[in-house]
Write a structure and sequence with these properties.
Shape of chain B: globular
CATH architecture of the largest domain in chain A: Alpha-Beta Barrel
Radius of gyration of chain B: 20 Å
Largest interface: A-B, 35 and 38 residues
CATH topology of the largest domain in chain B: Cytochrome Bc1 Complex, Chain D, domain 2
Structural class of chain B: mainly alpha
Number of strands of chain B: 2
Order of helices and strands of chain B: HHHHHHHHHHEHEHH
CATH topology of the largest domain in chain A: TIM Barrel
Strand order of the largest sheet of chain B: 1-2
Number of domains of chain A: 5
Largest sheet of chain B: 2 strands, antiparallel
Oligomer: heterodimer
Strand content of chain A: 15-25%
Shape of chain A: elongated
Distance between the termini of chain A: 125 Å
Radius of gyration of chain A: 78 Å
Structural class of chain A: alpha+beta
Strand content of chain B: under 5%
């Protein structure tokens, strides 16, 4: 700042000096102009003197024929000089008096000029007189009549005139006398020329007199003196002026000299300052601190190299920026506001920044910011910052270490080189019961349990002295005397010179770990809910059991136990109840078994047990019965009293399998059998069972994709009037041709579909496909009055089924009364559990309801009467033996009569022979279907068949 | 006779100086000023009532004067003096009969403000000219535009070009055939009788003042230069006029007392020289004087 001040002073001084020099130059130029002017004046005055000289000379030229143009020119020249002087500001240049002098010169010049003009005139006149006198004299000298004395007189006059002209005579007195004499002499002669001579001579004399007088007068005119006076005065004034000018110039010079000295002095000082600044600058550049300088608007004007290193910004990037480019945003705005408040007061601010480098990483700076105030004006902010990132990070690490030390589960003790404890952590206190106070300065041997002999410790210290490390399991004694297993790691700390500093012992309490290990082992092999072995444990156990059984050639039984309807309980009463139920059940099962027999829970409500060394299947059966019995005992869980049962499948070693897998799988299959046999029973495994189950599984899998892959198609079994042999309708039959299973009959796949719920999709497919076919027939003019579609009872679970079917039928433009829905008698009878309103809905919509397979169930006719039924279909099992089996004949007859009495239409199925047809007609069954009339046909064949029969189509139903 | 011889010798030497010089071939002038001056010279705008121009009294198509004993100014006002020719006036040492003007510029100021001539004043004339087409021309020549000095400067500049080279000039430059023998004899008489003593220089006159009536009284009513100097010695002193174009500038003398050149010469011989001259001598002088009639200046041509 001092430097700036100096520079300012220096600059203004140099400016002043330059100004002085310029002034001096201007002054010298004006002096030079003065000199030039003076010389011009001198020259002109000199010229005026010369002109005056020519005037004087001219006035001497008496009686000369002169071209006056020359003298006129001189006069003009003199006037020009006068005009020149009059136009000059002489008084301004040289002081007063010059105007008067000039005016004197002009006046005297005017006088002289007048004299000259007169002189010119007189001279001309005189000259002409002389001319004429000369002429006359010549004329008169040639005149012989004029006497000689007159001639002499004339010559005398001429002579005297000449003497006057030449100035020999100044007084004309003699000439006047001579002329008077002549006048008297010539008077009598009456010569005109003589008279002329006399008068002209007289005139000439006067002329010359005037001329001389004028010339004489002219000499009295002081023009020359006046000019000289002015000259002198001018010289005096000029030398005075020049003297003053010299003095001023000298003063100028002295002033300039002094200023140069001052400038030199200041320059020296500035140089010193500059060098100091340079040194300072060097220090700043090479400082360990970051140095940033901004202008008052806080735009960076300077940064040093450290700044570049710490911030990652180079100078070019930083300069012109606001330092907030470093702001990380981690510190709150109030922090900066506080800082600004301090700075705005012109005070120094100290604090720490968490800043961000160019690459985005954070760094810590201890900063001190000073507002630089020069002459009461804020010129800069100077920030000196130290990168304390390392320090901060170390601090944080230390803090972290301390926290780790304090909070770690491992107990840590630190000893000095004499093995005296100097520090222990919290965990140490927790594990050993000793507080830090109690153990400080003590040897860690206080923890000795006495379980290890001396050689153990010797070996340990040997290892420590050799490798600096030791670790191993060691028993220690806590303050309370408890001996605990610990894992001890000892490491040694050395200083940089390799001197031993400390031992650090880290004790891990193994109690917890040992416990955990045991627990983990248990968990790995047991079911958490019931505490029973899990499947893995069971399989391991079974494996051993099989080996033993094999070796001892004994039998063992695998029991697969599955609770009946557990899912219902779980869903309706909640998992908690379910879980408690499972716990109770597992205890009950456990209680029925020998200790050596293992029961495991292998999933949800599935248990499996192995009965070792049994003698026969009966032993197993006995156990199964025990289980069934104990499970069926009412179970009170909370407020609920539950009645549950179970199904058990049994597989025997070696009869039903010799491997774990086979035994478990077969037991499982047997359990399924038990389930299918009405639950709450047990079944032994049978090989057949295994195959069926397999087939069923395949069908189930095949059905999953069958609809999507278009593996279903419909066959149409024509229905006809038995008497008329005319076609009126058809029963739709679903066919499935699986690419893996081949043709699968509905008897086989429908139950599976019903079980899996697939039946809904399939049923809808069949209904829609049938409607579509019928609509095509209608469009093509193929007459088919009605169509029968089988519906599974499972489909009725869909509450909106009637509307769905109605919507489909309407979509294809099929009136519902043309559609007969067939369902099995078993279902109809089973509706006791279901609501039969669904059938009424169908009927009210116009659909016809037919009872299929009639006669196979246990229909109560009175009940049947209440149902919304349109048609009874006599089961083919009755028809096939007509008319040979009398029983069937009777049953058929009874069905027909009964149906008719109830107002139902009767249709027979499976008519294969003419006798059957005949029998039926005979007993009033007018409708039928069967191979006798036509076997079920694919769509194309059926279409063809229908077209052929069109002629008979109008047979009444 | 030694005295006469010496006299002759004396005069001979004296006369040996070139008393008469020919007109210069050309004058150093500013032609734009000349052009302006020429227009102003012929423009009546200079007069108060727009009736009189310089050319009214100085007819450039003839002898540069008005061939009247005295001139007429505005409103027919009669002047009191014969107007001298403007031709070759630049070579006059002073202007006006009484020499009151130092030069042409000073002269030009006179007639404009003379009540019996143009009767104008520069105070009026300057605004008039500023409103006229002259304003532009003035500004193009003079930075300060229309001023009194500039008006007379332009006119004077024009007048400088009014030179009338004559046969006599050709003779002076060596063309012997330019003059007739009679004219040559006339020239000799002109010299020897003393005419040349006053009528010399380029203009054969215009170099000095002389009393009108040196030997005998001229009977002039005008007191001449006395009017200017009030010096009794200057009574009847007039500027010796130029003899160039004398043939065309009748009537003669300041009061235009005669229309005849021969008579004018005779008057001069009598009252100025005080000597009788023969008719032959006078005729020859007149003859010679006619050789001074020059061509109308080129610059006058429109």
């Amino acid at each position: 700042m001092r430097r700036l001040l100096h520079i300012d002073k220096l600059t203004s001084l140099i400016a002043a000096l330059l100004f002085l020099m310029a002034s001096l130059l201007a002054y010298l130029l004006s002096v030079d102009k003065d000199i030039t002017n003076f010389h011009a004046y001198e020259t002109r005055l000199q010229r005026m003197l010369l002109l005056d000289k020519t005037f004087d000379n001219f006035l001497l030229k008496k009686i000369e024929a002169i071209n006056y143009e020359t003298i006129n020119g001189h006069i003009d020249a003199f006037e020009d000089e006068l005009d020149y002087f009059k136009s000059r500001p002489l008084e301004k240049e040289y002081g007063s008096g010059f105007a008067a002098l000039l005016s004197t010169i002009e006046k005297t010049f005017r006088k002289k000029h007048d004299a000259i003009e007169h002189f010119k005139s007189y001279n001309a006149a005189a000259l002409n007189s002389i001319h004429y006198i000369f002429d006359l004299r010549r004329t008169l000298s040639n005149n012989q009549t004029i006497p000689l004395d007159i001639q002499i007189q004339l010559d005398t006059i001429l002579f005297e005139l000449m003497q006057i002209i030449l100035g020999i005579h100044t007084s004309p007195a003699r000439l006047v006398k001579t002329l008077d004499d002549l006048e008297k002499t010539i008077a009598p002669l009456l010569n005109r020329n003589l008279e002329y001579f006399h008068s002209h001579s007289h005139a000439l004399m006067e002329s010359i007199g005037r001329l001389n007088k004028t010339a004489e007068h002219a000499t009295t005119i002081q023009l020359h003196d006046n000019i000289v006076a002015m000259q002198k005065r001018l010289e005096e004034a000029y030398s005075h002026k020049i003297f003053i000018e010299k003095v001023i110039a000298l003063l100028f010079f002295l002033l300039a000299f002094v200023m140069i000295l001052i400038v030199g002095f200041l320059y020296q000082r500035a140089r010193k300052t500059y060098q100091r600044l340079k040194a300072f600058m060097y220090a700043v550049e090479n400082s360990d601190n970051t140095i940033v300088m901004t202008d008052p608007e806080r735009n960076i004007v300077y940064v040093n190299e450290v700044f570049e290193k710490t911030s990652g910004y180079n100078k070019e990037e930083a300069i012109g920026q606001n330092p907030r480019i470093l702001k990380s945003g981690i510190q709150e705005d109030t922090y900066y506001a506080e800082m600004n408040k301090v700075l705005d007061q012109g005070k120094k601010w100290e604090g720490e920044f968490i800043n961000k480098r160019k690459d985005g990483s954070l760094f810590y700076e201890k900063a001190s910011i000073v507002p630089v105030i020069v002459d009461g004006k804020l010129t800069n902010y100077l920030a000196i910052k130290l990168d304390i990132t390392q320090y901060v990070e170390q601090q944080q690490k230390l803090k972290l270490s301390a926290a780790v030390f304090e909070n770690t589960q491992e107990s840590i003790l630190v000893t000095d080189r004499e093995n005296r404890i100097i520090s222990v952590n919290k965990a140490f206190t927790t594990i050993t019961g000793y507080s830090e106070k109690e153990v400080l300065g003590k040897n860690p041997s206080i923890l000795k349990s006495g379980r290890h002999d001396k050689s153990f410790y010797r070996k340990m210290w040997l290892a420590i002295s050799q490798t600096g490390k030791w670790h191993g399991k060691i028993y220690n004694r806590t303050k309370s005397g408890e001996i605990i297993p610990t894992w001890l790691t000892i490491s040694t700390l050395y200083d940089d010179e390799g001197n031993l500093l400390n031992y650090i012992g880290m004790l891990t309490d193994l109690r917890e770990i040992i416990h955990s290990q045991e627990r983990a082992e248990f968990l790995a092999y047991h079911d958490t809910l019931t505490g029973l072995p899990n499947r893995a444990y069971f399989e391991e156990h079974l494996f051993q059991a099989i080996e033993i059984a094999q070796r001892n050639a004994t039998t063992l039984a695998v029991l697969f136990i599955d609770l009946d309807r557990f899912k219902v309980i779980n869903d309706t009463l909640g998992h908690d109840v379910g879980d408690m139920l499972l716990k109770s059940v597992s205890e009950r099962i456990r209680s029925t078994l020998r200790k050596s027999d293992m029961v495991a829970r292998i999933g949800g409500d599935e248990f499996i047990a192995v009965l070792e060394t049994i003698h026969s299947a009966e032993d197993a059966a006995y156990v199964c019965e025990k289980i069934l019995k104990i499970i069926t005992e009412p179970l009170k869980i909370g407020s609920h009293t539950l009645n549950i049962s179970t199904s058990i499948g049994v597989a025997l070693y070696p009869d039903n399998g010799t491997t774990i897998t086979d035994l478990i799988k077969n037991a499982d299959n047997a359990m399924y059998l038990a389930k299918s046999l009405g639950k709450n029973n047990f079944q032994f495994f049978m090989p057949e069972l295994s195959r069926k189950m397999h087939r069923r599984l395949e069908i189930e899998q095949g059905l999953n994709a069958a609809l999507l892959n278009g593996e279903f198609w419909l066959a149409y079994q024509p229905q006809y009037g038995l008497e008329s042999k005319s076609l009126y309708g058809a029963e739709v039959l679903l066919r499935w041709e699986s690419p893996t299973l081949g043709i699968v009959t509905p008897d086989e796949f429908i139950p599976v579909a019903e079980e899996t719920g697939k039946i809904n999709e399939i049923g809808t497919f069949v209904f829609e496909e049938a409607c579509r076919t019928l609509s095509i027939f209608d469009a093509e003019g193929i007459v088919l009055k009605s169509i029968s579609i089988n519906v599974s009872s499972k489909q009725f679970a869909q509450k909106d089924l009637p509307h769905k079917f109605l919507e489909i039928a309407e979509r294809y433009g099929i009136e519902p009364h043309r559609i007969t829905l067939e369902m099995t008698e078993r279902y109809i009878m089973d509706t006791s559990t279901y609501d039969n309103t669904i059938l009424q809905t169908f009927q009210s919509m116009g659909f016809k309801i037919s009872v299929d397979d009639f006669g196979t169930g246990y229909s109560s006719m009175s009940y049947l009467k209440k149902l919304p039924i349109d048609t009874i279909k006599i089961d083919k099992s009755f028809i096939q033996d007509i008319p040979r089996d009398i029983n069937d004949n009777e049953i058929t007859k009874a069905i027909i009569v009964l149906s008719h009495s109830l107002g139902y239409k009767v249709i027979a199925e499976g008519i294969e022979h003419e006798e059957q047809e005949k029998f039926l007609i005979e007993h009033g069954c007018l409708f039928g279907q069967g191979y006798h009339f036509c076997r079920p046909l694919g769509i194309d064949a059926f279409t063809k068949f229908v077209r052929e029969r069109t002629d008979n189509a109008d047979a009444a139903i | 006779m030694p005295i006469f011889l010496s006299l002759i010798l004396f005069f001979g030497i004296a006369i040996a100086e070139p008393m008469i010089k020919p007109l210069p071939d050309k004058m150093d002038v500013d032609w734009s000023k000349v052009y302006l001056g020429k227009q102003l010279f012929s423009d009546t705008i200079l007069s108060r009532d727009n009736s009189v121009s310089c050319a009214t009294c100085h007819n450039l198509q003839d002898g540069g004067d008005d061939n009247l004993p005295v001139s007429f100014g505005i409103e027919g006002k009669q002047g009191n003096i014969n107007s001298p020719t403007v031709f070759n006036a630049a070579f006059n040492f002073r202007q006006f009969w009484d020499g009151r003007a130092k030069d042409l510029k000073e002269q030009a100021k006179g007639p404009i403000e003379n009540p019996v001539e143009m009767g104008n004043s520069f105070e009026q004339l300057i605004p008039t000219l500023q409103k006229s087409r002259y304003a532009v021309i003035f500004r193009s020549i003079y930075p300060d535009g229309v001023t009194k000095e500039n008006i007379v400067d332009a006119i004077a500049e024009f007048e400088k070009t009014l030179l009338t080279p004559s046969p006599f000039d050709r003779y002076l430059k060596g063309d012997e055939s330019a003059l007739t023998s009679s004219q040559k004899e006339g020239l000799e008489i002109f010299k020897s009788k003393g005419c040349i003593v006053c009528h010399h220089g380029i203009n054969l006159g215009g170099t000095m003042y002389s009393k009108f009536g040196v030997v005998e009284s001229s009977g002039s009513k005008n007191l001449g230069r006395y009017n200017v100097t009030k010096n009794p010695a200057d009574k009847y002193y007039f500027k010796v006029p130029t003899l160039r174009n004398i043939e065309k500038t009748a009537p003669y003398f300041h009061d235009g007392r005669t229309e005849s050149l021969k008579e004018a010469v005779t008057i001069m011989a009598n009252i100025q020289l005080g000597r009788a001259m023969t008719v032959d001598e006078i005729d020859k002088i007149v003859d010679f004087l006619k050789s001074l009639t020059g061509n109308i200046p080129k610059s006058v041509e429109p």
